[in-house]
Design a protein that fits this description.
Elements (H helix, E strand, L loop, with lengths): L1 E8 L9 H11 L5 E8 L5 H13 L3 E7 L6 E4 L1 E3 L26 E3 L4 H10 L4 E4 L6 H16 L4 E7 L16 H17 L13
Parallel strand pairs: 1-2, 1-3, 3-8, 4-7
Antiparallel strand pairs: 4-8, 5-6
EC number: 3.4.19.3
GO biological process, one term: proteolysis
Main location: cytoplasm
């Protein structure tokens, strides 16, 4: 039985919900066959989010870690390829902090690639009927902060553990006028279940193009 830790974030920037947590909690409530899934909500706060992630990893002892965050405006579930060692906040986090050009981990590598089989994950999400793509930037806000923090933790302390970050669109209730892309949390959860199964079963990623020109 593969042990999975999935995380989502609390609401931020004045929102009342965060679809990343809505979907993550749904996955834990109805996990895919063969997986034991623990869901933990992270604070949308620089520093504290990685502390909470580290604690969750220690307590759950996962084989696989998938952190999920909201990327409003994206049309589908996007599996992140890379996390960069910089915090550069355009808005404040939930503690009022807005670091500019600060490292996530002082002295750490400039970036880490995800250790998830990202292309196999995207293919599985699409096969589940959910729009998906590879993303080449997780931004420089708390999502990237957690993505980098997770990757650094895996690289330095958790040999054998695989993990990465996934962004999900707004929920429909966040865009009631329908002017931006949105997916119901249940649909996102369906895609995340497919992703987890693919990540647990795939030793070597697919060699197919998912690149971008810009």
């Amino acid at each position: 039985m593969t042990r999975v830790l999935i995380t989502g974030f609390e609401p931020f920037c004045g929102e009342s919900v965060n679809p990343s947590w809505q979907a993550a909690s749904m996955v834990a409530a109805e996990p895919p066959a063969g997986l034991t899934v623990t869901a933990v909500q992270l604070p949308c706060v620089f520093g504290e989010s990685v502390v909470a992630l580290r604690r969750a990893v220690r307590e759950s002892g996962p084989d696989l870690v998938v952190c999920v965050g909201q990327a409003g405006g994206r049309p589908g579930v996007t599996v992140e390829r890379i996390a960069v060692n910089v915090d550069d906040a355009r808005i404040t986090d939930n503690a009022g902090a807005a670091p500019v050009d600060e490292p996530v981990v002082p002295g750490g590598p400039a970036a880490y690639f995800s250790t998830l089989p990202i292309k196999a994950c995207v293919a599985a999400i699409r096969e589940a009927g959910v729009p998906a793509a590879v993303s080449n930037t997780a931004g420089t806000f708390v999502c990237n902060h957690v993505a980098y923090g997770l990757a650094h933790l895996i690289a330095t302390e958790l040999p054998g553990v695989r993990g990465g970050f996934v962004h999900v669109p707004w929920a429909p209730e966040q865009v009631p006028d329908g002017t931006a892309a949105a997916l119901p949390a249940a649909t996102v959860a369906q895609g995340l279940r497919a992703l987890l199964l693919a990540a647990a079963a795939t030793a070597e990623d697919l060699r197919v193009t998912e690149g971008a020109t810009h």
